[in-house]
């Protein structure tokens, strides 16, 4: 038998491919003889050269063969043999993640003299029959060569044309709706406190050195892909080969390697230090049989928390006063306070400045690849990420009275280090994948199992134990918080454990013109979420003197407020943890049909069934309340209903020579919600917790003084002291069957799920044309349209209907504030026993569409470029930027009321985006190589909303969209404070001038501003990486020393006025001061009181220095807004 | 295939056409500014302030108002909100406003300095400790704003003392002497280590001998006795409670007297009967002590002569105060006008006082409404009577 050796010239560098497989690639083709007749029974064997892994199948009766479950990458050698024909060998093939590489053979009989051998292969990853939906692939060379100063896979993934701007969103849908999988197993943080694992610690879940390829898929019509309505990001880890190889690396940057100026103004960069270092190693355990790969990476960053030096020479300023004219020096005061706490109270609050934020992560990846035999390949991968980041204390006061000024360091605030906390994100994951070829290539099976554990634990900053001490806030002379000590309000009693088990199986049958796949995708989730805000109690004092006095037992001076959340159910569900579990099962079947010349059709259907496995406590008291005709189901899960996702797709080779192809598809994608939204319903049921929030003076309900005075063991309500004033019943409930069970000890917020609540579903359609253009350029024009079927919508069932129209504005007006249980009054609530009754529900409103024009060219495997422009439009009801239903609801700015937010622009929308990138590598003089990587992103700035600072429609949600006045008569203005020296006319002139210079406002005078209708200025970002290799060969082994320079925001390096990211100076432009006439509370004789008939009155505040606010945008002055340079060293063998 | 393309093209177009617009409402904006207003009359009643320019909502309503006797007439000024009176008549506590406050009251020295948080020549009415509040004017009301006190009144301090028995305690009174140009006391007596005043480290008081009426206040009388060998007790003036961090900058401050109240009608400028006039008396001298005034020998009624600053309720935390015609022991008492005063017919009468001020002949007109004011300093011998005519 003679052998025919072909060197494939197929270059597969360009960054597009389908995402049909999840963790592997495949190969298919037809075997014919020189007469064009099909050749059944020909053996096709592909060998992954580096590992000796072989994949084999015989051509079927229709001449086609299929090789499945193949390692991504290469090079591959493919050999075809059949008795009586010359053996054919094709070498140097590389496969991409998810690619189905088409390689067909024309065999020549032995008797024929060799004249021509025909081997047809798909040369271009875009112009091929598998490309149906929108997806982008990045191979290992690109991952290593393209600039990423954070060594973060998101920097690479965001090169996808349809990616959003600042956030990790795609196609105008929020990052929380993406799905990340590693080696085919879900790696999402499904609970969703951050979209990605270790996100709260600002760590990446895996090392870039452990990744072989990444695929971002937006519109897969392969029904195997599910659990997202945004994008599916699939990464696979590296594998070991027969040859021992590895790398050790170190990357570094600090403040001296960053820009010193912002737009020409010299501004010091706070000192910081970033280090990333690690090692990877891969090799054989048994040649051709068993391989290993390991990677360990460390990342450390230190930043100062103390970035706003409070005046050391002067004092805390009083609004409008000249600094230094008053009598309080915060540093002196805090030093004295620290001494007092240590010596008198016996509590060490830590230090109040020179506190550093430590960010640390360690990532381990270990992988085994076992070629059991030619038909069965087993992969086992384990990875561990231990990450933490210190955080400044929350600015929030929870359900307590809002804290002016917050707790993080500002020019006014110096909190003690005992209030800073640390978030630990520890993730452990193991997956196993078995790829099998059965029936001599007629069947394949992919079995994936995985277990992932997330352990999120809080500590005090520095890894210290959380003190058993209350939180104390002390207000300074200017009315802003001056200092805080004691643990962060949300840190004690806060822990999250997640366990995710998954089992997937795909079975494919290869028939004539059909590839049929059936499979299942199942995920089991178990959550243990401990969260109690303000568990240690929160004291607030109006002055340092008040605290001193109270701490020493003053009978007349106490805190201005005292707030605590406590376990409220005696004998009931005393545990404060939300323990629950759920299951999401998916089943699917699809067919790929190739029976029509030049046309490939796919069709399939997937059904997902979310099942809730834990029975929850209900709350009979709340359940029996009539919320305007609606009765809630506290503790009730939605009905279990299957969610169907039919999908069809096509790829048409229009010209028959793959120079032009038309492709597209349409179908339904089913995702999940962050499970934290569901978890809210587990413990926000009015049963577990009572909320005590006293701002009354005197703070005493027992008549014996001030029981809420400062104590290191704060007051907690108990059964003997709290009774329902209307019934006299104890508010600690002992009988769960009683109607009164769950009557809140105080006004409380409940979270429930609508009975027919469904996981998010979208209908997505794409249509694209790919065309071979002159000079080897491939052009693509791609349209994607997505319509929400079940979008998540959060409403407050306890928000009553509007009671009127706001005078001088026209928007609906709601009843008066109701923060405590009221017997009388124009309470905006339907029921005064309940605060917010939030219901997770669905709406079909919302859509996204984008159109992309892209040009790509691969000059060689070492030189490729891509450039794309994408226009995107997206609208939604609820922006998904909260981690709880409450945070989402309370931040949805609106005109018509919080329950009627209306359709508006998505907060992740980036209307215009240009993305270009390329890599070029040149080797020279036998020992040198230089690699240059460039990425450029030009995009619309992030969207924002022009709102009022305040709740003008009285619906209980701050930040209502503002009416943009056309003239002075349309807005009632007043001064900002007693020190404001402007007349009303002067204030209007300043506001009018501001509106006139603002593009959005000036174009929308006389209208309500739209939610996320305004945009920050255009952003230009050019990032550059330069890798300089020095290599030599010792004993047949190549050794490379590599120096790297990574420049983030290179334009800014050239000119400090370039590459700036600008943000709105003030989105809540004018401050709602009040109505011309107030709401009035009711009384026994006039229970309804009266509602305002007055117009709203606003203040247009000046800048802090008293100058008028005159410019819409200010540049990002942090280090992230400037150029940064990162140096690296790497040894590769 | 063509059919497939058609289907996708049509479905895509349908999809795009179905892109909905932003859901919003039709605004019904205001068509004019607030129609609410109040009237303000200013008097420069300080014993030593320079001439003053006065502003309401930053609109100049008086220029170069001279010290002691100068005053403006009522000026109507737009305010941003109406206020709702919900309870007993004439009490500020029962007024609800849609705004926390709606009126800025501000005074600038025409020349020279007067202290103040906005600068050395710019003083604001301060209803709160952090400048976030100002004056709440009621729609339709009339006010007389007196600029009172001395430009050299010290900034009040809250002081700390150490009590050997009970440990740290907080005194919360600040005193100052009116002797020798109203300077703050720094230390009481040479060699006397007993009491320190108006210093941040209040010092040690081991032998107060009952000087402390409570843990939180210092009895003025005992302090007076200790001062200067009990020689000049009347020179001690308490400023009331002073929390630490008080933003009162010292110097001038305001006393706002409500003259007219929209509802109910119990507080109105009087309407004297024919051939009569109405009058009242306010003692605004910081050191004249108890004083009376008489017109043609007939005393203006009692309750009118107590300078509010001498009552600890004029809280230096705030620095300014407003009051109404009816009051209680908890609020400074400024009586309303006495209608048809003394049964006197209009004419020229001598206004006299028991304080060391010259009597003042004055023409009282038929139907006139007058406030007789005692200003100036007894210590400095600058006491003077003056008259404000309200109509």
Please name the defining characteristics of this protein.
heterodimer, A: 1133 residues, mainly beta, 22-stranded antiparallel barrel, five-stranded mixed β-sheet, 10 helices, globular, disordered N terminus, B: 391 residues, elongated
Q: What this model shows, in words?
A:
Chain A is mostly beta strands. Chain A is built from 10 helices and 56 strands. The longest helix of chain A is centred in the N-terminal third of the chain and has 16 residues. The relative contact order of chain A is 0.10. The N terminus of chain A is likely disordered. The longest helix of chain B is centred in the first third of the chain and has 16 residues. Chain B has 391 residues and is mainly β. Chain B is elongated, with a radius of gyration of 28 Å. The interface between A and B is large, with 90 and 76 residues.
Can you summarize this structure?
The complex is a heterodimer of chains A (1133) and B (391). Chain A is mainly beta.
> How are strands sequenced across the largest beta sheet of chain B?
4-1-9-14-18
Name the beta content range of chain A.
Answer: 35-45%
Note the main sheet of chain B: 5 strands, mixed
Figure out the total of helices of chain B. Answer: 3
Helix content, binned percent of chain B: under 10%
Strand portion of chain B = 25-35%
Shape of chain A: globular
**Mean pLDDT across residues of chain B:** 67
Kindly state the number of beta strands of chain A: 56
Uncertain runs of chain A with pLDDT below 50, 5 residues or more?
1-21, 311-328, 697-706, 818-825
Please give the radius of gyration of chain B in angstroms: 28 Å
Order of helices and strands of chain B: HEEEEEEEEEEEEHHEEEEEEEEEE
- Contiguous runs where pLDDT drops below 50 for at least 5 residues of chain B: 87-93, 158-245, 303-313, 325-334
List the helices and strands and how they pair.
The complex is a heterodimer of chains A (about 1150) and B (about 400).
Chain A: E1 3-7, E2 25-33, E3 43-48, E4 53-58, E5 64-70, E6 73-81, E7 87-95, E8 100-107, E9 118-121, E10 135-138, H1 140-145, H2 153-157, E11 179-182, E12 185-186, E13 211-217, E14 232-237, E15 245-254, E16 261-262, E17 265-266, E18 273-286, E19 290-304, H3 330-345, E20 356-373, E21 376-391, E22 421-438, E23 443-460, E24 471-475, E25 481-485, E26 494-511, E27 514-531, E28 538-541, H4 544-551, E29 561-567, E30 577-596, E31 599-612, H5 620-623, E32 643-653, E33 660-670, H6 675-683, E34 689-694, E35 748-753, E36 761-772, E37 778-796, E38 804-805, E39 812-813, E40 834-843, E41 847-860, E42 863-876, H7 885-889, E43 904-905, E44 912-924, E45 928-939, E46 943-944, E47 947-949, E48 972-974, H8 984-997, H9 999-1003, E49 1014-1015, E50 1019-1034, E51 1037-1048, H10 1050-1054, E52 1062-1064, E53 1068-1075, E54 1096-1099, E55 1113-1115, E56 1124-1132
Parallel strand pairs in A: 1-7, 2-8, 11-14, 24-28, 35-40, 47-53, 48-54
Antiparallel strand pairs in A: 2-5, 3-4, 3-6, 6-7, 8-9, 10-13, 11-12, 13-14, 15-18, 15-56, 16-17, 18-19, 19-20, 20-21, 21-22, 22-23, 23-26, 24-25, 26-27, 27-30, 28-29, 29-34, 30-31, 31-32, 32-33, 33-36, 36-37, 37-40, 37-41, 38-39, 41-42, 42-43, 42-44, 44-45, 45-50, 46-49, 50-51, 51-56, 52-55, 53-54
Chain B: H1 2-17, E1 37-44, E2 52-56, E3 59-65, E4 75-78, E5 83-85, E6 95-97, E7 105-109, E8 122-124, E9 142-148, E10 159-163, E11 167-171, E12 173-177, H2 179-182, H3 220-226, E13 236-241, E14 253-260, E15 278-283, E16 293-295, E17 298-299, E18 320-323, E19 347-353, E20 360-364, E21 369-375, E22 384-389
Parallel strand pairs in B: 1-9, 14-18, 15-21
Antiparallel strand pairs in B: 1-4, 2-3, 2-7, 5-6, 7-8, 9-14, 10-11, 12-13, 16-17, 16-19, 19-20, 21-22
């Amino acid at each position: 038998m003679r052998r025919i050796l072909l060197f494939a010239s197929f270059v597969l560098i360009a960054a597009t491919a389908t995402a049909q497989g999840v963790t592997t690639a495949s190969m298919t083709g037809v075997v014919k003889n020189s007469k064009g007749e099909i050749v059944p029974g020909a053996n096709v064997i592909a060998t992954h050269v580096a590992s000796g892994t072989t994949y084999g199948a015989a051509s079927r009766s229709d001449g086609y063969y299929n090789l499945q479950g193949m390692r991504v990458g290469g090079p591959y050698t493919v050999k075809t043999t059949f008795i009586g024909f010359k053996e054919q060998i094709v070498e140097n093939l590389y496969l991409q993640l998810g690619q189905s590489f088409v390689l067909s053979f024309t065999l020549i009989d032995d008797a024929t003299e060799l004249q021509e051998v025909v081997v047809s292969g798909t040369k271009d990853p875009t112009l091929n029959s598998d490309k149906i939906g929108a997806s982008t692939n990045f191979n290992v060379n690109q991952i290593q060569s393209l600039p990423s100063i954070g060594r973060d896979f998101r920097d690479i993934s965001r090169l996808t044309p349809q990616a959003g701007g600042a956030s990790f969103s795609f196609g105008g849908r929020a990052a929380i709706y993406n799905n990340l999988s590693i080696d085919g197993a879900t790696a999402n943080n499904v609970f969703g406190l951050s979209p990605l694992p270790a996100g709260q610690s600002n760590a990446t879940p895996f090392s870039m050195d452990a990744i072989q390829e990444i695929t971002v898929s937006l519109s897969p019509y392969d029904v195997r892909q599910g659990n997202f309505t945004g994008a599916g990001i699939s990464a696979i880890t590296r594998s070991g080969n027969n040859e021992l190889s590895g790398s050790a690396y170190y990357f570094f940057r600090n403040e001296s390697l960053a820009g010193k100026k912002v737009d020409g103004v010299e501004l010091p960069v706070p000192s910081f230090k970033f280090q990333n270092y690690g090692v990877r190693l891969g090799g054989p355990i048994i040649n051709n049989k068993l391989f290993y790969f390991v990677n360990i990476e460390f990342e450390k960053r230190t930043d100062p928390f103390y970035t706003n030096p409070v005046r050391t020479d002067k004092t805390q300023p009083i609004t409008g006063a000249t600094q230094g004219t008053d009598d309080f020096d915060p540093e002196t005061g805090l030093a004295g306070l620290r001494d007092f706490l240590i010596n008198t109270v016996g509590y060490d609050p830590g230090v109040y400045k020179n506190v550093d934020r430590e960010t640390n992560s360690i990532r381990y990846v270990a992988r085994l690849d076992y070629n059991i035999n030619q038909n069965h390949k087993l992969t086992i991968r384990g990875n561990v990420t231990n990450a933490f980041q210190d955080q400044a204390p929350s600015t929030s006061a929870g359900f307590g009275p809002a804290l002016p000024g917050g707790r993080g360091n500002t020019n006014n605030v110096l909190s003690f280090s005992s209030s800073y906390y640390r978030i630990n994100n520890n993730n452990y994951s193991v997956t196993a994948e078995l790829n099998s070829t059965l029936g001599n290539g007629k069947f394949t099976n992919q079995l994936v199992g995985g277990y992932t554990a997330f352990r999120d634990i809080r500590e005090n900053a520095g890894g210290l134990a959380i003190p058993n001490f209350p939180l104390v806030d002390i207000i300074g002379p200017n009315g802003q918080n001056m200092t805080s000590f004691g643990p962060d309000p949300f840190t004690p009693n806060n822990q999250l454990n997640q366990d995710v088990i998954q089992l997937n199986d795909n079975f494919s049958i290869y028939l004539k013109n059909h590839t049929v796949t059936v499979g299942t995708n199942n995920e089991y989730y178990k959550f243990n979420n401990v969260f109690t805000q303000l568990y240690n109690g929160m004291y607030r004092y109006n002055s340092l003197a008040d605290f001193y006095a109270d701490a020493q037992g003053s009978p007349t001076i106490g805190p201005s407020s005292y707030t605590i959340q406590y376990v409220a159910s005696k004998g009931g569900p005393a545990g404060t943890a939300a323990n629950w579990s759920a299951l999401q099962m998916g089943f699917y079947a699809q067919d790929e049909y190739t029976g029509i010349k030049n046309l490939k059709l796919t069709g399939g259907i997937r059904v997902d069934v979310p099942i809730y496995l834990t029975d929850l406590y209900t709350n009979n008291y709340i359940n029996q309340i009539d919320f305007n005709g609606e009765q809630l189901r506290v503790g009730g899960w939605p009905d279990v209903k299957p969610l169907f996702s039919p999908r069809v797709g096509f790829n048409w080779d229009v010209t028959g020579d793959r120079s032009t192809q038309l492709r597209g598809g349409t179908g339904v994608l089913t995702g999940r919600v962050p499970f934290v939204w569901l978890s809210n319903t587990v413990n926000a049921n009015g049963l577990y917790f009572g909320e005590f929030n006293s701002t009354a003076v005197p703070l005493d309900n027992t008549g014996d003084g001030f029981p809420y005075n400062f104590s290191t063991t704060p007051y907690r309500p108990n059964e003997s002291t709290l009774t329902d004033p209307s019934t006299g019943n104890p508010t600690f409930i002992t009988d769960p069957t009683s109607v009164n069970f769950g009557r809140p000890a105080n006004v409380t917020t409940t979270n429930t799920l609508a009975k027919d609540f469904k996981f998010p579903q979208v209908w997505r359609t794409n249509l694209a044309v790919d065309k071979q253009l002159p000079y080897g350029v491939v052009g693509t024009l791609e349209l994607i349209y997505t319509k929400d079927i079940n979008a998540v919508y959060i409403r407050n069932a306890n928000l009553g209907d509007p009671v009127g129209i706001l005078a001088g504005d026209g928007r609906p007006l709601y009843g008066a504030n109701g923060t405590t249980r009221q017997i009388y009054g124009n309470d905006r609530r339907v029921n005064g026993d309940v605060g917010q009754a939030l219901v997770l529900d669905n709406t079909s409103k919302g859509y996204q569409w984008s159109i992309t024009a892209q040009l790509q060219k691969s000059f060689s495997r070492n030189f490729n470029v891509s450039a794309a422009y994408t226009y995107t439009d997206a609208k939604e009801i609820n922006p998904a930027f909260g981690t709880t239903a409450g945070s989402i609801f309370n931040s949805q700015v609106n005109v018509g009321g919080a329950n009627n937010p209306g359709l508006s622009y998505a907060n992740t929308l980036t209307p215009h985006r240009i993305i270009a990138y390329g890599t070029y590598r040149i080797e020279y003089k036998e020992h040198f190589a230089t690699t240059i990587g460039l990425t450029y992103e030009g995009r619309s700035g992030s969207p924002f909303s022009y709102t009022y600072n305040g709740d003008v429609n009285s619906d209980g949600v701050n930040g209502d969209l503002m009416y943009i006045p056309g003239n002075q008569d349309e807005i009632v203005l007043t001064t900002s404070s007693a020190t404001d020296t402007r007349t009303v006319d002067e204030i209007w002139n300043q506001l009018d001038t501001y509106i006139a210079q603002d593009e959005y406002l000036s174009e929308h005078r006389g209208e309500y501003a739209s939610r996320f209708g305004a945009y920050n200025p255009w952003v230009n970002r050019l990032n550059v990486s330069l890798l300089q290799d020095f290599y030599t060969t010792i004993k047949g082994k190549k050794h490379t020393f590599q120096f790297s320079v990574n420049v983030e925001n290179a334009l800014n390096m050239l000119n400090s006025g370039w590459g700036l990211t600008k943000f709105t100076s003030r989105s809540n432009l004018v401050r709602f001061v009040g109505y011309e006439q107030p709401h009035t509370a009711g009384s026994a004789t006039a229970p309804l009181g009266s509602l305002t008939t007055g117009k709203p009155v606003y203040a247009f505040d000046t800048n802090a220095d008293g100058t008028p606010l005159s410019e819409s945008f200010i540049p990002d002055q942090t280090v992230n807004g400037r150029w940064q340079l990162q140096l690296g060293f790497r040894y590769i063998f | 295939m063509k059919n497939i393309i058609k289907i996708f093209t049509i479905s895509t177009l349908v999809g795009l056409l179905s892109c909905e617009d932003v859901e919003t409402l039709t605004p019904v904006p205001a068509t004019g500014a607030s129609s609410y207003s109040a009237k303000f009359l200013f008097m420069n009643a300080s014993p030593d302030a320079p001439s003053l320019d006065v502003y309401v909502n930053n609109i100049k309503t008086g220029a170069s108002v001279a010290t002691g006797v100068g005053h403006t007439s009522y000026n109507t000024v737009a305010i941003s909100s109406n206020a709702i009176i919900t309870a007993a008549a004439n009490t500020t506590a029962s007024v609800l406003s849609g705004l926390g406050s709606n009126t800025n009251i501000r005074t600038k020295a025409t020349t020279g300095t007067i202290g103040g948080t906005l600068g050395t020549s710019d003083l604001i009415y301060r209803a709160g400790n952090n400048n976030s509040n100002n004056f709440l004017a009621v729609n339709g009301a009339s006010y007389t704003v007196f600029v009172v006190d001395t430009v050299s009144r010290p900034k009040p301090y809250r002081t700390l003392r150490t009590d050997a028995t009970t440990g740290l305690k907080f005194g919360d009174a600040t005193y100052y002497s009116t002797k020798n140009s109203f300077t703050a006391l720094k230390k009481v007596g040479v060699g006397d280590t007993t009491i320190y005043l108006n210093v941040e480290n209040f010092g040690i008081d081991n032998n107060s001998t009952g000087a402390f009426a409570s843990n939180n206040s210092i009895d003025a009388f005992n302090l007076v006795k200790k001062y200067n060998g009990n020689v000049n007790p009347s020179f001690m003036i308490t400023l009331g409670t002073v929390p630490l961090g008080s933003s009162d900058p010292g110097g001038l401050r305001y006393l706002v007297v409500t003259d007219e109240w929209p509802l109910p009608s119990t507080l109105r400028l009087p309407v004297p009967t024919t051939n009569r006039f109405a009058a009242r008396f306010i003692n605004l001298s910081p050191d004249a002590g108890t004083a009376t005034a008489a017109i043609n020998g007939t005393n203006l009624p009692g309750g009118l002569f107590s300078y509010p600053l001498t009552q600890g309720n004029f809280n230096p935390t705030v620095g300014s105060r407003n009051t109404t015609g009816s009051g209680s022991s908890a609020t400074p008492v400024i009586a309303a006008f006495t209608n048809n005063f003394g049964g006197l017919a209009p004419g020229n009468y001598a206004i006299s006082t028991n304080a060391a001020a010259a009597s003042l002949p004055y023409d009282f007109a038929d139907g006139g409404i007058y406030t007789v004011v005692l200003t100036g300093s007894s210590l400095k011998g600058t006491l003077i009577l003056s008259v404000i005519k309200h109509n």
